[in-house]
Amino acid sequence: MTTTRQTSRWTSRGAVHALLLLAALYSVLPLVWLFTSATKNVGDFSTTSAFELGEWNLAGNLRDLFTEEGGIFLDWARNSLLYAGAGALLGALICTACGYAIARLDFPGRRLLFAVTLAGVLVPTTALALPLYLLATELRIVDTFWAVFIPLLTNPFGVYLARAYAEAAVPNELLEAARIDGAGELRTFVTVALPLLRPGVVTILLFQFVGIWNNFFLPLVMLTDPKLFPVTLGLFQWSSRVSQFPHYNPLVITGSLLAVVPLVLAFIVLQRQWRSGLAAGSVK
Amino acid sequence: MTVLAKSETSAEPRPPGPRRRRLRTAPLVLAAPFALLLTGTVLIPIGYALYLSLFTERLTGLGFAGPEDVFVWLANYAEVLGDPAFRTSLVNVGLYALIHVPLMLGAALVLALLLDGAVLRLRQMWSLMVFLPYAVPGVIAGLIWSYLFSPGIGPLNDVLPWNPLGADGVLPSIVVMATWQWMGYNMIIFYTALQTVPRDVLEAARVDGAGPIRTALSIKTPMIRPTIFVALVFTVIGSLQLFTEPLVLSSFTNSVTSTWTPSLYVYESAFISNDYGKAAAASLVLAVASAILSALVMRLSTRRSR
Looking at chain B, which terminus has fewer C-beta neighbours within 10 angstroms, N or C? Predict the structure, then answer.
């Protein structure tokens, strides 16, 4: 790369590294705190300083976490995986199919569908949650799995991305060739287009997974039965008790650590996938 | 671009025959699931909220018959817009956006330019570290920072120049949380956009004697302006619907009221006061406000890039 040897004070390597270090500390220190705090018992938590390690108590905290209220944390973890895992998988497939259809097939209402999808990207989720709740009340599905799961499948931004990917990655000539060979449109989609769209699908899947995992308002509004809670809602409920009952502190913190670790690992492992996916999505 | 241009021409000569029928069922199978979801979970709920926002529940007679829905035209909207608590919540998110948006996007842009411009080892690692907070759910981010702000537990209470849980301090505290979550995500988006800036343009700038800072400000930044504006739209919409962070913080301090942001106001009117008409009206005001804001930003971006 270009190395201009203009050594003005601000462009010097030292200043660049200082800024990056500052940003990295800001980003990582709260996570370090989460880890050190998850290893402390209630007493050490309030008496030792923030980043200092107290007596190593992680195993005890984990035991408490998994036995509190009859092991409900495991239910929450399973629910989160189900909402986010199944929701992202199914949602990404639905989005990709629709984005591909808008990009590469001609059908009546195609422009309208895309226009409404774009409008859907801009509708704030918190403005939607209450109307969804009221509708679910009418349908008598409040406080069920489906009341949370079905709305989370809808991902207009995923369709927008899928359309962009399909326009860039699936050449029309290839589709024409498949058609001339006598393949039906659906078969062409599955055997020709889908493999080409794979990086795009993975990106949509990953971001929809994170979106569902992070979604808080919808479960908060829809669910009252703790057995159906995702991890975030369960931890929130516990955290609202900490000022009265300090023994919830280690539960909340250890639970938070367990909820964060899988996602952080997924992002580290899948780095190449989401980096390239973000690139395609942002440049469009 | 070339792919697009070709697609226009090659779509023209379409052999007639049985393929026509297939063309009609295939889009249905591929596009219908999403179209149905969009209708069922976005369009119908909005329509239903619109309908509800025109009614209010009133006890009729002596109250023996139970509450009855009464059509009140725009009275709910008038009530929401005239409510000082709602206006305060708008001021709160307005102030929050005024600080958070330039701070977060500015920091993300500077970091992206640094990563792109400077000769760095461990570039991947730096960017990954700054990106990681994005993987932390909003509730958990809220919890971590609430603890960090708490006196006696977190170190920040003693270090920060403001009282992070005091009445005037919660706004900057929430800015610190939200900036933490979104800075790295936007940095990666800007960085990937920067990598598409043609290297010969940069080479030409260098030959003309432009230093790294000059190149970053007058060449690279204008070239990724569309990306910056997309990030701006999403950040502005996100700011307006601020909900999770203040809600979590409110278990740790009384400085965050139950109607601190418009979204909290909606939640409070629906689930604590059980006034669905008012809550639906407030939801729609929020949706319209974010539509107007994003349209404004879009308009601004197209004018600038011409």
Answer: C
